[in-house]
Structures are given as structure tokens and as C-alpha cells.
Design a protein that fits this description.
This protein is an all-alpha fold. The chain has two domains: about 60 residues, no CATH class; about 120 residues, Serine Threonine Protein Phosphatase 5, Tetratricopeptide repeat, CATH 1.25.40. It is about 75% helix and about 0% strand. The longest helix is centred in the middle third of the chain and has 14 residues. It holds the Pfam family PPR.
Amino acid sequence: MNRKHDLKCLCAHASHIHSFVLRKGIDKDPYIFTSLLSLYIHCDDPLSAELLFRGRKTKGLIAWNAMISGFSHNRMPYEALSLLEQMVSEEIKPDETTIASALSSCSQLSTLRLGKEIHFFALKGGLMGDNYVSCAIIDMYAKCGVIHLSKRFFDQLKEIDTASWTVLISGYGVNGNGKMSVQL
């Protein structure tokens, strides 16, 4: 079996799995709760995940991250960014996963101002050492049409890897500068 087929089979039974978890009374376990969120998100059912999430009084960072990245992954950037705002207002401290997902949402919306704010937040919060965050920053600046800021940030990286190069090259291509992407 292939992974896509396995996921399709799992998604067909998502509501049954959720019902089983409720019947057994194990829905209070934070790992099981987050697994259910991820199940709905990966089954392209972020609204069911959101209902489950909103019904829970106490949520850990991993659950918040599952929802924010899930919304972003499912092309729901407004919802992802709104949830980030709610998370911060509830004094849950974002981590690298949160930041990378929020920057991805900014990329989808081409919202430079908010992207810069999140970049600054990551810088101030000491969250810049993560490769996912670095790539998300490069991507966000490129998709917001300011490829020179992508390049400037790229040039300041202490460690440049294949992922960073790929995002920068793609950014030049997205901005209509295929010649520069080939030269890199």
C-alpha cells in the first residue's frame, strides 16, 4: 500500500476513530487530543478540527501549532493568523513551528507588514536558529514581492543548506527573474 491510499482509508474512518476515543473517555489525554486534530487536518477537514479545538478549555502549545499549521496547510491563512493572535492574547508563547506556519500564511496573503512583524517577533524571541523559520522568512519576503529582502536575509544566514537555496531560487522565479535563479 502507498501512503496516499493509507491516509484515504484513515480519513474514511476519522469520525469512527473520534467516536471510539469519546466512548473510551480518553479524549482528555493531550496527545490523543492533538492526534485527533492532526487526523482531521490531514484529512482536509480543518473545520472539524476547529470544532474539536474550540471545545477544549485547556490547550497546549502543540495543539495550537497543529491548528495554526493545519489552517495554513489547508489554505486558510486568515484563520491561521487569527488563531495566532488569539494564542498570543492567551499568553501562550509561540515557538519555531508557530512562527514558520504564521509566515507561511503571510506568504499566502502577500502581507508584508504582518510578515515583517512576525520576523521581528522571531528575532526578538530568539527563534531564528531554526531552518524552517529561516526558509519561511525567505519565502515570505519573496512572495510579498521584495526579493531583495529575501536575498539580504539569505546572505546573513550562518548556515546555508539545500532548503535555503531552493527557497531563494524559487523566490527569484516567482518574481519573474528566472535568469537570476539560474545564475544562483
